[in-house]
Amino acid sequence: MVDIQKINIGTSADDGTGDTLRNAFSTANDNFEALSTLPEKGDKGDKGDTGVGIKKITSSKEGKVVTLTIQLTDGTKQTPSFEIS
Question: Which residue from 83, 78, 45, 48 is spatially nearest to 66, judged by alpha carbons?
Fold first, then answer.
């Protein structure tokens, strides 16, 4: 399974403890790249019948937090989230 990296949002706004804007977007780009390399829906991949693909991706927003729900063909799901400002 692909590892999704968390963006360090720091302790509070503008306190200098989180990732810089550039690093945060670099991490976001890496996460999207990782997700785009997952097998397509129904693709058995290199593992034959046991391959896992993406079934559905949805997003939700609560306040400043955006959460993706990635449902996989094996019934599991990933839920990476990040904060926007």
Answer: 83
pLDDT per position as a tens digit, 1-35: 567 889 999 998 889 899 998 999 999 988 888 87
Q: Reduced to 3 states, what is the DSSP secondary structure of residue 83?
A: strand
> At 32, which amino acid appears?
F
Token pair listed for 76: 């599991």
DSSP state of 50: G
How many residues can be counted in the chain?
A: 85
Q: Is the pTM of this model over 0.90?
A: no
CB of 31 closer than 8 Å to CB of 5: yes
